[in-house]
Specification:
The structure is a single chain. By secondary structure, this protein is of the alpha+beta class. The chain has 2 helices and 3 strands. It has one domain. Strands 2-1-3 form a 3-stranded antiparallel sheet. The longest helix has 15 residues. It is elongated, with a radius of gyration of 16 Å. It binds zinc ion (ZN). The site of zinc ion has 7 residues, from α1. Zinc ion (ZN) binds next to α1.
């Protein structure tokens, strides 16, 4: 999953860019939105077709981890912290 490609495109101006890392894309989007107040679109393009499809289906978050709450990849019950007291 190290072949992630994120395309960023602004709806309100000609700003467009592509990033290899989700974190870089998020930073760029946040920066542009906070600076200009524009609405930036971004699309995850990964060699893993399943990830791309999940992101497109969700269309809200864009992060593969939270794209589909029903996904078996997401554990709805976080492990309880061990109390050693
Ligand atoms: Zn813009």
């Amino acid at each position: 999953m190290d072949e992630t490609h994120v395309a960023v495109r602004c709806d309100d101006c000609s700003f467009a860019a592509a990033y290899d890392r989700l974190r870089d894309a998020r930073t760029a989007v946040d920066d542009h939105e906070s600076t200009t107040g524009h609405g930036v679109d971004w699309e995850i393009q990964s060699l893993d077709a399943g990830v791309s499809r999940a992101g497109a289906d969700a269309g809200v978050c864009g992060r593969p981890g939270c794209a589909n709450e029903d996904s078996p990849l997401v554990d709805p019950d976080p492990p309880e912290p061990e109390s050693e007291r």
